[in-house]
Design goal:
By secondary structure, the chain is of the alpha/beta class. It is built from 13 helices and 12 strands.
């Protein structure tokens, strides 16, 4: 298989210089391309550079394909090669995180999202595409009819870029259902753009904003959006600075939300027993269907408060105990089950 695929002597020499484990992985990826009718070749962490990547792109089959390219040394010109591939219209998923893409890929990202009419998932995490790259993506999103999931974790996106992304997500043309903007550097203006556009983003169901330095006051536009109804079913706010006041704002919005939030992750948000009153008021609203609530890694929430949460909700939930904390048995953690397999977890 390798002899058939790599007839170019320079390529053979380049491959021979790679570690044996990488050569083996490349061979497996090529075999996947050659033998599968719906290939999902994994070329992640294969030390791919331009020449080797060009050879792979030239051999992409014209059938549905999912590409894993994480952790290589691919740059803006390499992405442009992918965008001009004859197989582009067959690609369903691209994971190209942890590479060397920059803002110079803005036009390519626009063309990629616009032209790949089967592309449902695009992961660009840990690439420094910045605001210009985000704007290129936003232009593509406005006309994309297939993209459902977009991951932009730690892409150096600022207020201007995130505002462009959210304006595109809120447009009626986009089909995006899942957006991850974690670990970017936008400030109040960017957060306001995110939360104020949530209600207009009628297809956005999953929003992840981990490690974004979100404070209590930043949640005011989200509180209003929740009150007026939105499509969100999952909100991940892990590792922010919400505090008890932030949870109070959030719970007030959820209690009045017309389209119900089902999953809420509040790990590492400097919460204490002071947030329990708002949570209980929210959970006791008959129409609230919040099945998954994660309060882990908030050490100031005491076990007594969690016991109180158990006692108040026991009327509508079956209780069982789970003993697990950081891989060791420590103390009982409440696990509340509602509506069969759906669960609401309260952990500390």
């Amino acid at each position: 298989l390798v002899q058939a695929a790599w007839t170019d002597k320079q390529l053979v020499q380049e491959i021979s210089r790679l570690p044996e484990v990488v050569q083996s992985k490349l061979t497996e990826g090529l075999r996947e391309l050659a033998e599968s009718t719906t290939p999902s070749p994994d070329f992640s962490r294969c030390q791919l550079k331009s020449q080797l990547f060009a050879a792979i792109i030239a051999r992409l089959p014209r059938c549905p394909i999912k590409l894993a390219l994480t952790g290589n040394q691919l740059n803006d010109r390499d992405l442009a090669m992918l965008q001009t591939s004859p197989s582009l219209s067959f690609i369903e998923s691209i994971d190209i995180g942890f590479n060397k893409l920059t803002a110079a890929s803005a036009d390519t990202l626009h063309a990629l999202v616009h032209g790949a009419n089967r592309l449902t998932c695009l992961d660009l995490s840990h690439n420094n595409i910045g605001d210009d790259g985000a704007k290129g993506l936003a232009d593509g999103l406005r006309t994309s009819i297939s993209l459902r999931k977009l991951v932009l974790t730690k892409c150096q996106i600022d207020d201007e870029g995130v505002s462009a992304i959210m304006a595109a997500v809120a447009s009626h043309q986009t089909s995006l259902a899942s957006l991850d903007l974690s670990n970017n550097r936008f400030g109040e203006e960017g957060l306001d753009a995110i939360f104020s556009h949530v209600s207009a983003a009628t297809r956005l169901q999953y929003l992840t904003l981990r490690s974004c330095e979100i404070r209590s006051i930043d949640l005011e536009p989200l509180q209003e959006a929740l009150k007026h109804g939105c499509a969100l079913s999952s909100l991940d706010l892990r590792n922010n600075r919400l505090g008890d006041k932030g949870i109070q704002r959030l719970c007030e919005g959820i209690a009045q939300c017309q389209t119900r939030l089902q999953s809420l992750d509040l790990q590492k948000n400097n919460l204490s027993d002071g947030c329990l009153e708002g949570l209980l008021d929210c959970l006791m609203v008959p129409d609230v269907v919040l099945h998954n609530l994660n309060l882990a890694k908030n050490p100031n929430i005491t076990e007594a408060s969690l016991d109180l949460l158990n006692r108040i909700t026991i009327q509508t939930a079956d209780i069982k105990q789970r003993v697990q904390h950081r891989g060791r048995q420590q103390r009982a953690l409440p696990e509340l089950h509602q509506r069969g397999e759906d669960t609401l977890h309260s952990e500390a």
